[in-house]
Each structure stands twice: as C-alpha cells, then as structure tokens.
Write a structure and sequence with these properties.
209 residues, alpha+beta, 5 strands, SH3 type barrels, 51% helix
C-alpha cells in the first residue's frame, strides 16, 4: 500500500513587532563608537595590571617566548629556563629548545625590553584616543552649528510674520477710524436738517404774527 505523506511541520506564529521599539530603532540618533568599544576592535595591545612572565637576564633563570608552535609548545608561550647544555635550553616541564633557534623559534623576554614595548604601545593607544576625542569634538561642533543655523533661520521666518500681523493691525485700526468718520459725517446732515426745519418753523411763526 502507498505510504501516507509525512505530516508537515507546524507553521510558526507570525512575528510580533513592537511599534515603539521599531520607532526607537529607526529614529535613534547616531553615535560615534571608538575603536576600543567597537565589536570589530582588535584585542588590546596592553593589558593593564597584568604582568606576564619576564626575566631579568639571559641564561638560567631567564624567560623565553616561543615564536612558533614547535618544541612541544604553543606559539606565544613563555617558559622559564632551568638549565642548559652546549646546544639546548632546558625549560620547566621537561621541554627543551635548541640554542641556534634564537630569534627564529624562540626569543629572550627581558623586563627592560618589555617595559619599552609597553610604553610604545601605550603611546599608540593615547594617540588613538586623542584622535577619537578630536573627531567626536568636531562632530559635536558641527551638530551645534547646524542647530544654531536652524534656530536662526526659524527666527528670521517668524519675524516677517510678526511684521505682517502688525501691518494687519494697523490696517484694521485705519479702517475703524474711517468707519467712525463716515458714521460721524452721516449724523451731521441730520442735525443740519433738523436745524433748518426749526428755522423754517420759526420763520413761519414770525410771518403769521
């Protein structure tokens, strides 16, 4: 008999997006990320407060750093020299390295050299931090100048509108005064007419007498 088709996997529910979170993500102001804070930043050159294994001199009691993954050691591993022969250096843990591989497979680690190296690395970090601070200050100054220009432009656009309202108010006042004058001139003929009628009545009375 034919096999029944396998059941389809359940359909996942539709994603639920928060409008507020989406708006915050879309309209978030950009920020300057320094090299140290970037997720793509390389590991720090100097580890503050962590002192590696260093030696004071070459020879027995000194420290070597393995430059290549060989001699049964990993690259970058530091070992203390506990003995030596005519051709080999003997390290802790029973490991050895040939003396003729100096600066090829291993190197001496001296405190003086390490301090100079760390000082140079700190100088590089300080220079990078100063460059980042200068770049951030320039961006902040440009942003402030842009905001000031925008505010000045807004003030200039509001000034003509206020002048326009003042002119409109003056025109309304003039129209009101003109209306008052017209109204006053309309009352005057009535008064004159009344006076003329009174004069005519007085004249008629004098004639009758």
């Amino acid at each position: 008999p034919p096999r029944a088709p396998p059941d389809l996997p359940p359909v996942p529910p539709p994603p639920d997006f928060c409008e507020a979170a989406a708006a915050m993500h879309l309209f978030a102001p950009p920020e300057v990320v320094t090299r140290q804070e970037s997720k793509f930043a390389p590991p720090p050159l100097v580890q503050e407060g962590v002192e590696g294994l260093v030696g004071e001199e070459r020879g027995i009691g000194g420290v070597v750093e393995i430059l290549k993954a060989k001699y049964g050691c990993g690259k970058g591993q530091r070992l203390k020299v506990i003995g030596e022969t005519g051709t080999l250096l003997q390290f802790e843990g029973g490991k050895t390295a040939p003396k003729n591989q100096e600066d090829k497979g291993w190197r001496w680690v001296l405190r003086e050299d390490e301090e100079e190296k760390m000082a140079a690395q700190r100088a590089v970090l300080v220079a990078r931090a100063a460059e980042d601070a200068r770049r951030i200050a320039q961006l902040a100054a440009a942003k402030a100048a842009k905001a000031a220009a925008k505010a000045g432009k807004k003030g200039r656009t509001s000034a003509p509108s206020s002048a326009g309202t003042e002119s409109e108010g003056d025109e309304e006042a003039k129209e009101a005064r003109a209306a008052v004058k017209v109204k006053g001139s309309g009352k005057a003929p009535k008064a004159q007419k009344k006076d003329s009628s009174s004069d005519s009545s007085s004249d008629s009375s004098s004639d009758s007498s």
